[in-house]
Every structure is written in C-alpha cells, then in structure tokens.
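Here is one chain, start to finish.
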Amino acid sequence: MNSPKEIGDYIKKLRKSKKLTQASLAQQLGIDPSTYAQFEAGRTNMTLATINRIADALGYKLQVSFILK
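Its structure:
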C-alpha cells in the first residue's frame, strides 16, 4: 500500500513532467493551491475521487487493483 507521501511524490513527478505549477494545477482542479500543496506533501489524505481528478487533469487514467482476502 502506498502512503500519502508516496502518492504525493508521484503526483508531483507527473505534474512537473507536464511543466505545470502547483498553482496552475490547483486552478484546473478548482481547489485552493495550499490544499493542493498539502496533497503533494502527503500531509492530507486524498480520496480516490480526488486522485482520479488529478490524474485526469494531468492526462493520465487511474488504474486501481484490489486484492480481496
């Protein structure tokens, strides 16, 4: 399982590969830039819906795998 920090670091890498700032991506998402910064820093847990919105804004499709025991 990935920690919020690991997810934030990965999203940051994807955002930078698209040459976007935190502020510009936050604006696309309709959220406050400080909230978005908290996501990347791993200080705030994101819902799956939020992660999906970020992926869409960056031009990626979210793939989720579940392992049921």
